[in-house]
Predict the structure.
Amino acid sequence: MSRSKLGVGASVVVALIAWAAILFQQAQQPEVGTDTVSGINNTALFLTTGAHGLSNVHYATVQALLEHHPHIEIHFATAVDVTPSGDVVNGRDAAKLARISSFARANSPTALDPVFHRLPGPSWEGALLENTDVGVVSLQLPPGYKGVASLSQQIQHSFAPWTSEEYLRIYRATRELIDKVDPAVVVLDTFFMPAIDAAREARRLHAFITPNTLVDNFVADQPWLGMLWKYPFVGTDFAFPVPWRHIPENALAAARLIWAVLHMPIMKAKQQFLREHGGINIPVDIVPPNVTCTGPMVISVAPAAKQDAELTAWLARGGKGKTIFINLGSSISEYNSEQASTMAAAIRATLEKHTDVQLSDLIASGRVRISGWLNVDPVSLLETGDIVASVHHGGSNCYHEAVYAGVPQVILPLWADLYNYAALVETSGIGVYGSRGTAPNWTVEGLTNAFLAVVDDEKASSMRAKSQKLSQKAKERPGRMVAAAEIAKWAGSGRADVSPE
C-alpha cells in the first residue's frame, strides 16, 4: 500500500520505555554515589536527543530562563542524524533555539545568548529506525493487553537503540562537552541514555525534564500495587480508577511488561560491551522525593500574529471558535493513504454539517489549509480564540498545549501512553477519544462524530468550560517558569569563585 506523510507521532512510547528504564535500573544497576563535581556557577548544560516530542519541554525551560533568569549561561546540545554525504537530517534544533532566544531577549535584553552544540548521532529516533525492526507500522498497535504484549517484544530494541559502538561514541563526545562547558547543572532528556551515563559518570549534578505525567513515570511506586488494579497501565485505555471488569487485563498488561524488562538479553550483552570499553552503565534515576510538578510546559514566545501574521489572519477570517486544528505530531510514525482518505472524508462530512466551521473544492476555497510544518508555536495558535478544538494523536506535548490554552481535544491514539491520554480527556470531560473501539484505525463515522461532538450542543459547551477552567489554573504559574526556577537554583550552586566569561 502506498504511504503518504499525513502526520507523525511525537510521544513514541515515551512513558512505556521511560517506565521500563526505571524498572530495569532498579533491577540491574548499583546505586550511584551522591558526591558531585562542582561546575561553573550560573551555568546550565541541556542535553537532548533532538526528538521534538521529548525536547519541547527543554526549549520551554530555556525560554523561561532567558526571560526570568537572564544571568544564567545556557548551553544546549543535541544529537543529530547525518546522511553519508554529511547533510544534517534533523537540523531544526539550532534554528529553534535561535528563534526562542530572539523573542525572549526582546523581553529580557540582558539575557545571554544560548550556545548550541552539535553532538554526534544518531539520535534516538534515527537509531530506532536504522538499527531495529521497530518501524512505523509495528508501533501502531491496539490498546489493552494485546498491544502491550506486542510492545513488550520490542522493548529491549527501543530501550537504547544505538549500537554499542554508536553509544560509546556519543557517550565520549558528551563527556568531553561536559568537561569543556563545566556546568553547575546538567539538564537531561529521559531517553538520551549516553548523555545520562556521561553526566552520572562525570559525577555532575543533574536533573531530568520530561513531558509526561507523574503516573506515567512513577506508577510502579504507588502503594498496594496500585499499578495493577487502580491506575490504567500504559498502553491501556481504561478509565481511572480502573473499572472492576478491566482489572484482570490491566494486571496482565503490567505483568507482561515487567517480565519483558527483566529479561532483555540484547541489553545485557550491550551493557557488557560498554563495561569493557570504559566501565559505563545505562542508568535512569527514580527520585520521587525530588520530583517537582510543573503543570503544562509549553513554548509560546510571542502572540501568533507576531510569529505568522498571514496564518493568523486566515484563522481570524473564520471567526472566533470556528476552526478545528488537526496536528498529528512531529516524529517517527507516518499515516498511510487509507488513513489520509478517511481523515479527508471526515473533514468533508463535518464541513457539510457545519458550513461555518473552517477545516484547505475545500482547499481551493480556502476553508481547509494544510501545512507541512508550522513556523509558529502551536499553543499560540490555540490561544487566539479562533480554534474550537485541537485534534491530535495523544502526545503529551499536544495534550498539555491544549490544556494550557483551554481548548477541547479530540485524541486519535496509536500506541502505548497515547491511549492513556485519550481516556484521560474523556474522564476529565475536556475532550473526546475519537477512535474508541477502532484504534489504532480510524473510520469516517467515528472521526466525524468526534469532530461534531466538540462543536455541537451542550456537551461541547461543557468541554469548553472545563477546558478553560483548567487553563486558568495552569496559567497561574506556567510550568516552564517553575522548571526554570528549579534549574536556575541548581545552576547557582556551582563554584562561587568562578563565573562564566
Confidence is low (pLDDT under 50) at residues 1-33, 281-287. Residues 233 and 254 are 6 Å apart (CA to CA).
